[in-house]
Specification:
The protein contains four helices and eight strands. By secondary structure, it is of the alpha+beta class. It has a six-stranded antiparallel β-sheet. It has a two-stranded antiparallel ribbon with strand order 3-4. β3 and β4 form a beta hairpin.
Length: 137
């Protein structure tokens, strides 16, 4: 199955409200990064054990680990979670950047070093989310 088909199947498998919001975000990401590489990770490790929620990735970056290893990975990601949606932004050197720069402006969201987690799109300012994505793209 192609990555595009995997993405469509994943979004379609969500409850209607979350499905509509994920589709809206998917379109925002594609408009913001029209030529980006698309990724789909099913959340399973090499032993076929579930280790995370499935997620959709957009664009690419190189992640540098403390042990000196590197990994090519997606730059922006999206995943459904039990209480809403998570948006991941990788490739940031400063793990406080998202919270400091967008925390007070984005609305009702939990922000960590690389994740913006919210219950529903109406809880956040989508324009601020677009700015967060454009700052790293």
């Amino acid at each position: 199955m192609s990555v595009q088909n995997q993405i469509e199947t994943y979004i379609s498998s969500q409850p209607e409200a979350k499905r509509n919001e994920m589709l809206a975000l998917h379109n925002v990401f594609l408009q913001s990064m029209p030529d980006c590489k698309l990724w789909f990770l099913d959340g399973k490790n090499e032993d076929n054990k579930t280790v995370s929620n499935p997620n959709i990735g957009y664009d690419k970056c190189t992640i540098n680990y403390a042990d000196g290893k590197t990994r090519v990975f997606y730059r922006v990601g999206m995943s459904a979670n039990k209480s809403g949606i998570s948006v991941y932004i990788f490739g940031l050197e400063d793990k406080t950047y998202l919270a400091k720069t967008f925390g007070e402006k984005i609305g009702k969201a939990n922000i960590t070093g690389y994740c913006i987690k919210f219950k529903t799109l109406k809880d956040i300012n989508i324009e601020v989310l677009k700015k967060a994505i454009s700052k790293i793209h």
